[in-house]
């Protein structure tokens, strides 16, 4: 019987056991490598093309995603590789209108200037199914950030493939321990490893995974040409953090669930989104499609001033962007001006603090925020 993913993360990508050798060898720092004679078929010649520290981490990610993985300097670098290797003039890109804003910015900026037509749709199954006709690439974010809508990936993949479109899934919010898009037939699984995968708020990193050798070769060539490469030390930190991914996610999810229940019954809150809440519109789909519900939730307080009072009254909720780290963080998403959300809309990422402490702290924040009406 195959080991559970939470067991596999502990040793994923480690070299074969050898006496007197470390479990995870340290990072390799190299620009050129010593390389004599004929270069054909040689892997390590120049640091923009390959690095043994990347190779080990990529092996681990590939094991978890069920394909070949390639790491990049950030999630956006990985997404760019997928977008720029699959799209050209006259192609249609279907992407979420309400997902991570970096993709919209590329779609409406450089991709549109190249002649790619962006077709931005809300993160709903019917909207994606209606939009696939004539598309070259369908990019889905599920669960979506920041509203946490969960989509029916196999249905969207099937509809897209029928019309000859490729499908890429941004799996950042739930990680390969929550969903493996390649197993649902997607052509690419892309993630920002800056979030849960690294999990300590100290590394920016990304990766893309694929099964098709030609799509894969396109990504490899793009990374070598464009040079959006991760540093060896960052990659090593990421690999080291992978072993604790399952235990971190388990505590973070327990905390997110407890907070979601607290928020759902609070008179300070207008609307709570968490796929693990039985009352959430995405709950049935999440139960069907995800192996876990995740650590990110969203809720709406009365207004901006209520959010300010919330942060002033909490000790364990740091005001910061991003998500997936060991510290509980939250932010008023509207402050960036990139998401169409109410003024009081807050995205919160549950950390690994002891649940009772966190619930008490957020409870103090809600009391200070005051009732919605
Ligand atoms: N995709 C999603 C869903 C994200 O939330 C983010 C960052 O917040 C990204 C991609 C971009 O990742 P990075 O910041 O590592 O470039």
Task: Characterize the structure shown.
- The protein is α/β, with parallel strands linked by helices and 373 residues long.
- It folds into 2 domains: 5-242, Aspartate Aminotransferase, domain 2; 245-369, Aspartate Aminotransferase, domain 1, CATH 3.90.1150.
- The protein is built from 12 helices and 12 strands.
- The strands form 2 sheets. A 7-stranded mixed beta sheet has the order 1-7-6-5-4-2-3, with helices on both faces. Strands 8-9-12-11-10 form a 5-stranded mixed beta sheet, covered by helices on one side.
- Helix 11 packs across helix 12 (355-369).
- The longest helix is centred in the last third of the chain and has 20 residues, at 245-264.
- The radius of gyration is 21 Å and the shape is globular.
- The relative contact order is 0.13.
- The mean pLDDT is 97.
- The structure holds pyridoxal-5'-phosphate (PLP).
**Helix amount, in percent?**
25-40%
Sheet-strand content, in percent, reads 5-15%
Ranges where pLDDT stays below 50 over 5 or more residues in a row are none
Number of E-state strands: 12
Molecules bound to protein: pyridoxal-5'-phosphate
| Gap between N and C termini | 55 Å
Would you give the CATH topology of the largest domain?
A: Aspartate Aminotransferase, domain 2
Question: Largest sheet, if any?
Answer: 7 strands, mixed
The backbone outline, from C-alpha atoms, is: globular
Overall SS class: alpha/beta
What is the assigned CATH homologous superfamily of the largest domain?
Type I PLP-dependent aspartate aminotransferase-like (Major domain)
CATH architecture of the largest domain: 3-Layer(aba) Sandwich
């Amino acid at each position: 019987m195959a080991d559970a993913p939470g067991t596999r993360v502990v040793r994923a990508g480690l070299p074969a056991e050898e006496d007197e050798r470390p479990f995870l060898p340290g990072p390799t720092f190299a620009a050129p490598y010593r390389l004599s004679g004929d270069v054909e078929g040689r892997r390590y010649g120049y640091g923009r093309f390959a690095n043994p520290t990347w190779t080990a981490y990529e092996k681990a990610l590939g094991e978890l995603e069920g394909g070949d993985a390639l790491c990049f300097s950030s999630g956006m670098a990985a997404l760019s590789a997928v977008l720029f290797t699959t799209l050209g003039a006259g192609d249609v890109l279907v992407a979420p209108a309400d997902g991570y804003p970096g993709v919209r910015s590329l779609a409406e900026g450089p991709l549109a200037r190249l002649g790619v037509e962006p077709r931005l749709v809300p993160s709903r199954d019917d909207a994606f199914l209606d939009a696939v006709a004539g598309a070259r690439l369908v990019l889905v974010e599920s669960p979506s950030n920041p509203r946490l809508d969960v989509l029916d990936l196999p249905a969207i993949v099937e509809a897209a493939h029928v019309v000859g479109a490729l499908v890429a899934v941004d799996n950042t919010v739930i990680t390969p321990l929550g969903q493996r898009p390649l197993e649902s037939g997607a052509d690419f699984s892309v993630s920002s490893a800056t979030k849960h995968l690294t999990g300590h708020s100290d590394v920016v990193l990304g990766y893309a995974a694929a099964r098709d050798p030609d799509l894969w070769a396109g990504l490899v060539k793009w990374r070598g040409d464009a040079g959006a490469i991760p540093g060896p030390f960052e990659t090593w930190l990421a690999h080291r953090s992978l072993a604790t991914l399952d235990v971190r996610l388990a505590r973070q999810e327990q905390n997110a669930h407890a907070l979601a229940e607290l928020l759902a019954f609070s008179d300070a809150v207008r609307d709570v989104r968490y796929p693990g809440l039985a009352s959430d519109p995405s709950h049935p789909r999440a139960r069907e499609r995800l192996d876990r519900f995740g650590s990110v939730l969203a809720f709406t307080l009365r207004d901006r001033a209520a959010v300010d009072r919330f942060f002033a009254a909490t000790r364990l909720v740091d005001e910061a962007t991003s998500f997936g780290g060991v510290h509980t963080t939250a932010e008023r998403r509207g402050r960036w001006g990139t998401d169409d959300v109410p003024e009081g809309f807050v995205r919160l990422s549950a950390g690994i603090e002891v649940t009772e402490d966190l619930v008490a702290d957020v409870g103090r924040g809600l009391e200070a925020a005051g009732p919605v009406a």
